[in-house]
């Protein structure tokens, strides 16, 4: 029997879009021959279009579910916004979110192995890809926990193009928490406060600002240049930090002040997902796609 490695399974999945177990079983069946494994999966109807796995799936939705002291936020992608609004796709997203919230998997591999009605999420995604005709991808998730003394805030923008979950400690004001979540979707902070900004991020920006100050302030005293850098670094930290950003509904106060004046508490953590962020976007060429399907 051929030695089937994880990298072989990964390569076959990338070529065919098949599920983990289907890819492994195919490799076992053909004794590790990659080309034969692709053919085997296609013959079995498990890779009806081998090129699907290489297509760009950068549309989709962000979904949020909350149950008691647990919340789950996920991103599931498709190739087009049209399919992302499809009822079958939406049902699949809801099922995945429910399974993640209940089981709290450690990572994406564990999440894909979760079962829904006796079928793994990975297998359900493969079947949805085959039926719908577009690549479907479960990209990422996060499970957030709180205590009874905290409150969740959640917000989905434009039907799930952007979503955010926030935890406020020492508060029961859900309306305030939802307002903060809405702000997060709009203003995209990266950290809760300036104290959370990693030292390497700070150092990299400081180096840039020192170089800029040196070029702009040639001939000026050193203490003036230091003040320029300090001021710009304060602005940099304020842009990144949720608590210091001007609140989107009232720019006369920052987010920390908004929370303080509306139920109090301390912002503990947040997660913000935007569909397709950091991914290459699909470029439509319908003429080429039709020609390909017609064998031209």
Structural commentary:
By secondary structure, the protein is of the alpha+beta class. Among the domains are: 6-54, Ubiquitin-associated (UBA) domain (Helicase, Ruva Protein, domain 3), CATH 1.10.8; 55-145, Tetrahydropterin Synthase, Chain A (2-Layer Sandwich), CATH 3.30.479.20. Helix content is 46%, strand content 21%. It contains twelve helices and ten strands. The protein has helices spanning 6-16, 20-29, 34-43, 81-84, 87-103, 108-112, 121-132, 174-187, 199-216, 222-240, 255-261, 286-293, and strands at 59-67, 70-78, 115-116, 119-120, 137-145, 150-157, 162-169, 246-247, 250-254, 266-274. The strands form four sheets. The chain has a three-stranded antiparallel beta sheet with strand order 1-2-5. A hairpin with a 4-residue loop joins strand 6 (150-157) and strand 7. Helix 1 (6-16) packs across helix 3 (34-43) and helix 9 (199-216) crosses helix 10. The longest helix has 19 residues, at 222-240. The two termini are 41 Å apart. Residues 283-287 and 289-296 have low confidence and may be disordered.
Defining key terms:
296 residues, alpha+beta, Helicase, Ruva Protein, domain 3, Tetrahydropterin Synthase, Chain A, three-stranded antiparallel beta sheet
Question: What would you say about this model in short?
Answer:
With 296 residues, this protein is an alpha+beta fold. Among the domains are: 6-54, Orthogonal Bundle (Helicase, Ruva Protein, domain 3), CATH 1.10.8.10; 55-145, Tetrahydropterin Synthase, Chain A.
Give the overall average pLDDT: 88
Please mark out the parts with pLDDT under 50 across 5 or more consecutive residues, or reply none. 283-287, 289-296
Rg: 24 Å
Overall geometry: globular
Strand order of the largest sheet: 1-2-5
Distance between the termini: 41 Å
Helix share, percent: 40-55%
